[in-house]
Amino acid sequence: MTTPQLIAFAVGSYLFGSISFSLVLGRVLKGIDIREYGSGNAGSTNTLRTLGPKAAVAVFILDMLKGVIPVLLAKVVSDDPWLQVVAALAAILGHDFPIFFGFRGGRGVATSVGATIAMMPLLGPFLPFICGVILIPTRYVSLMSILGTVVTALIIIALAATNRVPDAYAVFAIVAALLIVWLHRGNIERLRSGTEPKLGKGGGLRISGRP
Q1: Inter-CA distances, 139 with 95, 178, 193, Å
Q2: Residue 192, CB-side half-sphere exposure with 13 Å CA sphere
Q3: Percent of the chain beyond pLDDT 90?
Q4: In this structure, are residues 183 and 32 in contact, taking their beta carbons and an 8 Å threshold?
Q5: Which of 16, 80, 107, 118 could disulfide-link 1, Cβ–Cβ 3.0 to 4.6 Å?
Q6: Dmax over Cα atoms in the chain, in whole Å?
Q7: pTM of the predicted model as reported, rounded to 2 decimal places
């Protein structure tokens, strides 16, 4: 990995991650800014609440690709796992804080999932199982995102500790998990108070801002 490669992937991945597909679809389909509805979040869950299931599936896939494509390109360019980590984290930061949309984006779950699968394809089949075990009985997407991210990070850390994946992947998992948990701090407070909406609920017009 060279310094020009590092800079190019950091900047390019961030800009690619800054393409907020939920906001684009909201404006195209309904002429709205979905950040003014539901949770105020520019992600697939709020897209489900605001635009419906088809748009939500499209946004989730596209947001995943924002993590997949930079990592795969980094693998083609270099065999250094740190370049993949830089590309992945930059894409996630772009999704969370998009330069094209006033730095108000999503929470990076789908993009983190995409990056994780691109780095460790064999881990991919286990992610839906982890998410399902949490989401099906509770119907809290936020709880699934938080606990699923932490569990996945612990698995990756264990894999790195046993030399099954590079240490760089463990660093990625820790940083991505901390960022996702931090961005869900409002959801954590609502879960504690019992006011967090369950899957498909809470899509009304907001009074102001992002939680």
Answers
A1: 24, 22, 16
A2: 6
A3: 77
A4: no
A5: 80
A6: 51
A7: 0.90
